[in-house]
Amino acid sequence: MKKSNILFTILLSMGAIIIGIILFLYFTFSPTTDTERNLSFGDVGLSVEIADGSFVKPIVRTYALEKYQSFSEKKQRKIQEQTLGKIEGDIPCVYLDGNKESLKFSFTNNGVKAEPNDVPEIKLTAYPSHYEDKSPERVITDKLLKNESGEYFYTLRRYRTQYEKYFLETNYIQLIYNINGKEYISVFSLHTSTSDADFFKNEILQQPIPAEK
User: Fold this and answer.
1) Which of 39, 57, 65, 88 has the fewest beta carbons under 10 Å from its own?
2) DSSP E strands: which ranges in the chain?
């Protein structure tokens, strides 16, 4: 083989490797695309509306409950990790200041608006957000409420002790509901915080404030 051909092959291989690395970094460290944010692995889907009008949509995954429960613990953990996004700012932050209807929910079946047979159940896991918080994650189970317009909603609270004026909590949410006699589960993650504090001008509270719920 001629030296020129060998050199060309080497350069071509190096170029392919460099392009591969660039593509890997791009897809790994880019925000989740709109087409990947709300995925349903069946006929039923869930839409989540953030009350404060956050432009970042949550990353939602919807499964038949029986199918989801058949997944290994490792696979369920991987799904949860997907809902946390790829980079900072990839999931919504809900500000708790006076937002009674923090989250609103709507359901579809084959693309058509659907009504759950029963009031959907919500399971919220709140993780420690401060180095002084040594307690394990908290699990809150509840049911959704309906407003006067017939929309399902839920009021988020601060579920961990607050040690500083500014706080940022991470919550993993599982919604279980029944449509046409079949149970489904939708999962997503979000942050909660307050708009009356500045991260860059944070203050340690003299007296920690207990969780609201």
Assistant:
1) 88
2) 38-40, 44-50, 60-64, 93-95, 103-109, 112-114, 121-126, 138-143, 145-146, 152-154, 162-164, 168-179, 182-193, 204-209
Distance CA 91, CA 85 (A): 6
Condensed to tens digits (0 to 9), the pLDDT of residues 1-57 reads 555 666 556 555 555 555 544 434 444 455 688 889 999 999 999 999 987 756 789
Report the mean per-residue pLDDT for the chain: 86
**Contact indicator for 114, 211 with CB cutoff of 8 Å:** no
- Label each residue of 15-28 as H, E or C: HHHHHHHHHHHHHH
Q: How many CB atoms lie within 10 A of CB 10?
A: 10
Residue 208 contacts residue 163 (beta carbons within 8 Å): yes
Nearest to 103 by CA among 88, 124, 82, 117: 124
Kindly tell me if the per-residue pLDDT of 94 is higher than 60.
yes
**What is the identity of the amino acid at 126?**
A
Where do we find the tokens 């949410």? 173
* Of the candidates 94, 97, 89, 109, the residue with the CA atom closest to the CA atom of residue 47: 109
Closest Cα partner for 197 from 90, 88, 86, 93? 93
H/E segment holding residue 8 = helix 3-28
Residue 32 DSSP class: P
